[in-house]
Amino acid sequence: MKIYIDTPENIAKMAAKRYVDLLAEKPDAVLGFATGSTPLGLYGELAQLCADGKVSFKNVTSFNLDEYVGLDGTHDQSYRYFMNENLFSKIDIDIANTNVPSGLDTSAETAAAYDKAIEAAGGIEIQLLGIGNNGHIGFNEPETPFGSITHLVELTDSTRQANKRFFNSIEEVPTHAVTMGIKTVMNAKSVILMAIGSAKADIIKATIQGDVTESVPASVLQLHPNVEVYLDFEAAAAL
Ligand code: GLP
Question: What's the CA-to-centroid distance between 75 and ligand 1, angstroms?
Answer without folding.
Answer: 18
